[in-house]
TrEMBL record:
NCBIfam families: PRK05474.1, xylose_isom_A
Gene Ontology biological process terms in this record: D-xylose metabolic process
Record-stated family: Belongs to the xylose isomerase family.
EC number, as in UniProt: 5.3.1.5
Name of this protein: Xylose isomerase
Top-level taxon in the UniProt lineage: Eukaryota
Entry's Gene Ontology molecular function annotations: metal ion binding; xylose isomerase activity
Keywords from the UniProt entry: Carbohydrate metabolism, Isomerase, Metal-binding, Xylose metabolism
Keyword Cell wall biogenesis/degradation carried by entry: no
Annotated catalysed reactions: alpha-D-xylose = alpha-D-xylulofuranose
Protein species of origin: Branchiostoma floridae (Florida lancelet)
Amino acid sequence: MSSFAPASSKKAKKRAAADGVDGEFFPGIQKIEYRPDAGPEDVLCFKHYNASEIVYGKSMEEWLRFSVCFWHTFRGTGADPFGFPTLHRPWEDGSDSMENAKRRLRAAFEFFTKLGVKYWTFHDRDIAPEGNDLAETNRNLDEVVDLALKLQDETGMKLLWGTCNLFANPRYMNGAATNPDAHIVAHAAAQVKKGLEVTKRLGGQNFVFWGGREGYHTILNTDVLAELSHMASFFKMAVAHKKKIGFTGQFLLEPKPKEPTKHQYDYDAMTVIGFLKHFGLEKDFKLNIEPNHTTLAGHGYEHDVVMAAAFGMLGSIDSNTGSPDLGWDTDQFPMDVKNCTMVMKTVLEMGGLAPGGLNFDCKVRRESTDLEDMFISHVGAMDAFARGLKSAAKVLQEGVLTRLVKERYLSFSSGIGARIAKGTATMEECEDYIMQKGEPKAASGKQEKFETILNHYV
Ligand code: XUL
Ligand code: CO
């Protein structure tokens, strides 16, 4: 994520001031409609996402639970390490003022409503500027949250999750929960305390922890066991505070292998599951899987979604994609129907993601500079997921893949296989079995057959 306001300019200030409190920020863009017969160049309508249509026993809206993230869509400027901001939004005056923060929030709620999503997500520091100390920062946050509550009431929007930005401020350059200085760990905890409280006020259904700088750049200066233990203690404090204030949202930990640190402790789904189990936190957390992080870890697109779900730990998905030919977190909109099918197949198999959802942790390219590109990108990704949902439903309804997978493991349903699966077999027993039955026959894995069957549905 990057959330730097564009350089201020007189023109931008004038433009922003011209927008009254109730002004329209996206004039000329109507509520996005479902138009299944629209042509290829009609990109401001849904051709597949039909919120109320029933697929596999539930409405599309219930299965998909789309959410817009505030940081990329309303704080992204298009700035990259090589160039200045390219995305100049008319409501931005370039300042870090409360007035600008509130105007930006109004623009966001108009966007959510016109797009027709029900959920949004934010980091504390995306929505309100930091003050000179924590007390002032908290006051700023409360004031913006008051407005967010009002806008949620007016529009029916809900908060999928809140989170704390524990990585942008220089104080966190050596980590937050894993910082070698306890003073900074305490600051991070104080920030999360407030983050939990405002997320509760907004009715947040989950709370995310992404350990942006919880890792190391060189192992030479790092006590990894101390840092991991401190991180676990930090999460235990959060669990205690959650209980104390009666926040009932689901805690989610978001894996990522690297960037900004060389090694991030929450490397991938299995690493995080191992960490949670080791420190006795597995009952209090699930995972928020972001496929672009999964591919950065060297896995296939759906790998972490599948692994987390297999262990009953899939909580939510930051549905984005990377460029397979690049080695960093490009946070692109998911447009590949086959990827979406694989994700939705897992979501259908587990009976739905609620209280999690599909959060678009995605940013338009810095070259996609038109205001309408904000809509086109989300609409395109929602349609890709709607197609993924429909294909996944067909895969499961016809049950061919499910049956073939089941058949591969049939030998575990009786005899020695059942005893191995149950964990009651012994090595002596296996030896006797082989002495009697002889050499096993190797069966074809039929990869190409499975791939061809998937293609039949997508
Ligand atoms: C960073 C990332 C974050 C988290 C929330 O790569 O994905 O935006 O989703 O902090
Ligand atoms: Co994310």
